[in-house]
Design goal:
The structure holds two protein chains of two kinds. By secondary structure, chain A is an alpha/beta fold. Chain A has two domains: 247 residues, Aldolase class I (TIM Barrel), CATH 3.20.20.70; 73 residues, Arc Repressor Mutant, subunit A (Orthogonal Bundle), CATH 1.10.10.920. Chain A has 15 helices and 17 strands. Chain A has a nine-stranded mixed beta sheet, sandwiched between helices. A three-stranded antiparallel beta sheet of chain A has the order 12-13-14, with no helix packed on it. Chain B folds into five domains: 178 residues, P-loop containing nucleotide triphosphate hydrolases (Rossmann fold); 85 residues, Translation factors (Elongation Factor Tu (Ef-tu), domain 3, Beta Barrel); 72 residues, Elongation Factor G (Translational Gtpase), domain 3 (Alpha-Beta Plaits, 2-Layer Sandwich), CATH 3.30.70.870; 107 residues, 2-Layer Sandwich (Alpha-Beta Plaits); 109 residues, Alpha-Beta Plaits (2-Layer Sandwich), CATH 3.30.70. The termini of chain B are far apart. The model of chain B has no long low-confidence stretch (mean pLDDT 92). Classes of the chains: A alpha/beta, B alpha+beta. Chains A and B meet through β1, α8, β12, α11 and α15 of A and α13 of B. The complex binds guanosine-5'-triphosphate and magnesium ion. The site of magnesium ion has 5 residues of chain B, from α1.
């Protein structure tokens, strides 16, 4: 594997669960953090990686709620395993990071910080049930800079119930004022089984209508472009050269290993998913056999379809030549009917060896992508 | 040998009153089936029969029974109770001298009880009244006996109270079959005349004819002739159902059995035809049957046009074992090439649909079922139209006629009010009312088939809390004030969505149709107008808004497997849609025009 692998580490703990979050996490004090950190490292060693780790991403949950001692222990161990990593991201929850911790992280080799700001409107942050406030976010960015981080990303969410076009614009403007290198702007997604979803289902909360959601998305793209953030994926924007390498590798369908409860891997042609339960995960790792909830070796065609779907999320789209090298298929041939249909409808364009979504297709990309999901 | 030892009888009843269960007990008591091989509703052999717990096809079985030291041959035919399969009951009755009319002791006389009693009387069968399920706590054998006497004219003290489940009274009933039902007429010395009352097609042996000998006998290797078609064959096998097929050398007068004679296709035999000897034939054929009338029609189109040959092969296979289902090629400007199919009723349609899906791998788009209409053109021609799209231009129509039926409903007193209202809203005219008992009543209506064939029964069940039952019988085509409603999707008329309705209801119905279509057709990238037109005039409009947002906000490594599944499902959904212009219309949309939304 000449390109090496990426490493994702999932910390399944949160101080408390956000109303909208569909990721697997548990309250932090309920489990033995020490056991988990040990298990994470044991799992990583089990891989006996021959390939260099190119990127590391420590996410969750919220890694920063591990507390300084265990977080640093984990980060240092990961850094030692990935001496050649060009990017090492840690997700940081505002309110859980101070100047000291950030300085220590930076020193340990973390070179990218992804701050879960979500919104710069106080009522919206509160609505989302985050444990922080807008002031915490500002502090976090400030301390990160001071600690020497030169690659900072802010996560923003739009189409939050009760938000308005003007609150979204304000939130965007506040984010821009920090002049960070990267911004992810996600439309709020209703995940099954979340508190927010049930509140909406019973009519306690009204979701933002589709048209407004679309307009918010469009305004986001425009505003960010004007401020010098190029869109490189459906929800991701960066100053030139600061695109997230770790995530770019996902969309290129490059191999990655994911460790921790609920984490997925795509390694040596196999897709696996760990069990989403801390105790079961730890027991499995300690017993020498990670508990998987899903394991499959996708066939060649399946890989080609996955690659196409993932590639199309990038503004770069499918690079026909690269696609052929990677999957063995000519995408233009394999998806000829689908391409033709969507090209006619103005949702795809084929030019200079690439197949790309058109600007108007971004907001409705799944309609196009679904047709590439199987042949 | 004579015919004294033979008894031929059908078991007839309303749905679920226990015919097949009673047949089980007979099979057991006569030792035709050993305890070990016994299973519930033994004669319901088809997968669909077992899954749905209903009888779809009549089956015959021959049993031996010793009564007072003499061995009898009993030929039983178990029949289906559902209204769609009445013709199976008539056929069975024509092969018998007697009928057991079974009535559930907890339900009483119901619509198909009455209908089947008529059929038995018409067929000249001797009827024994049987009150079943007396083991149930809710059983009211005395009340039910009163009803039977009052409605069907069978004396209440002559009814048999039994439990087909526990076996109570079944032995006595067997004795009564021997002592009370007449033996077949002894015409042993006449030329053979065997009535074909049913048939099925076996992959290896070809057509198997179920016969009842009314005169003479048949032997293996005999040269026979089918009197109506004139075709001749040589008998290769004769046999009886015991219940498995057991071959015999000869079938004598009065007996029931099967004939195999190297007949290739079901289409080569007409049910109701007479088998006779080719060299010394009977003078006249036995009276045959009126072929069953197809009540509803629906178009089937392959989801993908290239699947047309596959669909045709699938239908060919289905008609092999069901001659009452028909299909003819059909083409629609909107939907391409497909088939117009005719069915005996909605249950029959459902069964065909299910077999089509189960036994074949082809996606189909089906239009809403319709009844057939009669058109008198201005040039004086009378035409049958069983697809709304085939209706000529209004200027060319002198008269439009729709099918009317005699509708019988049996229900409880409390539901009469709501039932009257329902009937009125469905253009039904009350003909007569008859009290079965102080609490139950039978109402007879003259009703337009189109109003009662789709959802009427469900609505009826609802307003009567499950108590009402209904039965109907075709009367005639009669003039009606009918119009065609056309639906335009994105400004294009979609012929497969057209329906014919009474003028008074047209506007309202059209409006409801597009509201339902608006929900059934997925949103597209563009806005889609839906319009209702009557006689070329647009009378209502709805709009399907364009979708504006459909994109997964976050998709990273861990989400790939799950997301791919979701996307695939989205694509699968597209397969069962028909594109009309640039609009994709799903299967449910075609069906949604049907539901009248009471
Ligand atoms: N308690 C009780 N249940 C019975 C009796 N006879 C039949 N049943 C039940 O009634 C239901 C219908 O019985 P079937 O024998 O299938 O009725 P059927 O008349 O053949 O029905 P169709 O062929 O669909 O018209 C089954 O659940 C039987 O078990 C009986 O004597 N007592
Ligand atoms: Mg039955």
């Amino acid at each position: 594997m000449k390109n090496g692998v990426s490493l994702y580490v999932h910390v399944p703990f949160c101080e408390h669960k956000c109303a909208y979050c569909g990721f697997y996490s548990e309250p932090v004090d309920a489990h033995n953090v020490e056991l988990l950190v040990d298990a994470l490292l044991t799992e990583l060693h089990r891989y006996e990686l021959q390939d260099p780790i190119r990127t590391v991403y420590l996410g969750g949950g919220s890694p920063t709620c591990l507390g300084r001692q265990y977080l640093m222990q984990l980060v240092e161990a990961l850094a030692a395993q990935a001496p050649e990593a060009e990017e090492f991201t840690v997700e940081a929850n505002p309110g859980q990071v101070d100047a000291d911790l950030l300085t220590a992280l930076r020193r340990a080799g973390v070179n990218r910080l992804s701050i879960g700001a979500q919104s710069f409107i106080e009522s919206e942050v509160r609505f989302l049930g985050r444990g922080h406030n807008v002031h915490d976010t500002k502090q976090a960015v400030h301390h990160a800079r001071a600690a020497g981080f030169e690659n900072i990303s802010l996560d923003l969410i739009f189409a939050i119930p009760n938000s308005t076009m003007s609150s979204w614009k304000k939130s965007l403007a506040a984010a821009l004022s920090h002049d960070v290198q990267h911004i992810s702007a996600y439309a709020l997604t209703l995940e099954g089984g979340t508190a927010l979803q049930s509140a909406i289902a019973v009519g306690e909360i009204v979701s933002i209508d589709e048209e407004t959601d679309r307009q918010m998305y469009d305004i986001g793209i425009e505003t960010l472009a004007q401020a010098g953030y190029g869109q490189y994926e459906i929800s991701n924007f960066a100053k030139p050269g600061f695109e997230c390498r770790h995530n770019l590798r996902y969309w290129a369908n490059e191999p990655f290993i994911g460790i921790g409860p609920s984490a997925a891997s795509f390694y040596r042609g196999r897709r696996t998913t760990n069990i989403a339960d801390v105790r079961a995960y730890v027991d499995g790792i300690n017993a020498g056999t990670p508990m998987l909830v899903d394991a499959q070796v996708p066939g060649e065609i399946q890989v080609a379809c996955e690659t196409a779907v993932l590639n199309l999320r990038r503004m770069e789209g499918i690079d026909l030549e690269h696609f052929r090298e990677q999957t063995g298929y000519d995408a233009a041939e394999l998806f000829a009917g689908e391409i033709e249909e969507h090209r006619k409808a103005g949702l795809l364009k084929v030019a200079d060896g690439h197949i790309r979504l058109t600007r108007q297709a971004f907001a409705i990309a799944d309609r196009v992508l679904s047709d590439f999901s199987t042949v | 040998m004579g015919t004294d030892h033979i008894r031929n009888f059908s078991i007839v009843a309303h749905i679920d009153h226990g015919k097949s269960t009673l047949a089980d007990r007979f099979l057991q008591l006569t030792g035709a089936v050993s305890e070990r091989d016994m299973k519930e509703q033994m004669l319901d052999g088809m997968d669909l029969e077992r899954e749905r717990g209903i009888t779809i096809k009549a089956s015959a079985v021959t049993m031996k029974y010793v009564h007072e030291g003499k061995e009898y041959m009993l030929n039983l035919i178990d029949t289906p109770g559902h209204v769609d399969f009445h013709y199976e009951v008539s056929r069975a009755l024509a092969a018998c001298e007697g009928a057991l009319l079974v009535v559930d002791a907890s339900q009483g006389v119901e619509a198909q009880t009455v209908a089947n009693a008529y059929l038995a009387t018409e067929a000249g069968a001797e009827i024994l009244g049987v009150i079943n399920k007396v083991d149930l706590p809710a059983a009211q054998p005395d009340v039910v006996a009163e009803e039977i006497e009052h409605v069907l004219g069978i004396r209440k003290n002559e009814c048999f109270a039994i439990s087909a489940k526990t076996g109570l009274g079944v032995a006595e009933l067997l004795d009564a079959i021997v002592t009370l039902l007449p033996p077949p007429a002894d015409k042993a010395n006449e030329p053979p005349a065997a009535l074909i009352f049913d048939s099925h097609c076996d992959e290896y042996r070809g057509v198997i004819c179920y016969v009842r000998l009314f005169a003479g006998s048949l032997r293996v290797r005999q040269r026979i002739r089918l009197m109506r078609s004139g075709r001749t064959y040589t008998i290769s096998e004769l046999g009886k159902f015991t219940p498995e097929m057991t071959s015999v050398d000869a079938l004598g007068v009065g007996e029931v059995g099967y004939v195999i004679a190297n007949i290739r296709q079901l289409a080569d035999v007409t049910i109701g035809d007479t088998i006779t000897d080719d060299a010394a034939p009977a003078a006249t054929a036995l009276p045959g049957y009126v072929p069953p009338m197809q009540m509803v029609f629906s178009d089937f189109y392959p989801g993908n046009n290239t699947d047309y040959p596959k669909l045709r092969a699938a239908f060919d296979k289905l008609t092999l074992n069901d001659a009452s289902f028909s299909f003819v090629p059909q083409s629609s400007p909107a939907l391409g090439f497909g088939f117009r199919c005719g069915f005996l009723g909605l249950l029959h349609m459902e069964i065909i649909q299910e077999r089509l899906e189960r036994e074949n791998d082809v996606d189909v788009v089906q239009t809403a079922p319709t009844v057939s209409y009669e058109v008198v053109t201005t040039s004086g021609q009378v035409k049958r139209v069983d697809s709304p799209s085939e209706l000529p231009d209004p200027q060319k129509i002198a008269e439009l006629r729709e099918p009317f039926v005699r509708l019988e409903i049996i229900t409880t007193n409390e539901s009469i009010g709501p039932l009257m209202k329902l009937a009125e809203s469905r253009r039904c005219k009350l003909v007569k009312t008859d009290y079965l008992s102080p609490t139950r009543v039978m109402l007879e209506y003259k009703a337009p088939l189109a109003e009662i064939v789709y959802d009427f029964y469900d609505v009826l069940k609802g307003i009567s809390h499950g108590y009402a039952t209904m039965d109907y019988e075709f009367l005639a085509f009669e003039k009606s004030n009918l119009v065609r409603i056309d639906i335009l999707v994105n400004k294009t008329a979609v012929d497969a969505l057209s329906i014919i309705v009474h003028r008074d209801k047209a506007a309202e119905r059209g409006r409801r149709m597009i509201i339902r279509l608006r929900k059934a057709i997925p949103r597209h990238q563009f806005e889609i107008p839906l319009q209702v037109a009557i006689g070329g005039k647009i009378i209502a409009r709805e709009t399907i808004k364009a979708y504006r947002k459909d994109v997964t906000a976050k998709l990273y490594g861990g989400d790939v497997t799950r997301k791919m599944k979701v996307l695939k499902r989205q694509k699968e959904g597209k397969k069962r849609m028909k594109s009309i212009g640039s609009v994709q219309i799903p299967q449910e949309a075609f069906m949604s025009v049907l539901d009248t939304g009471e």
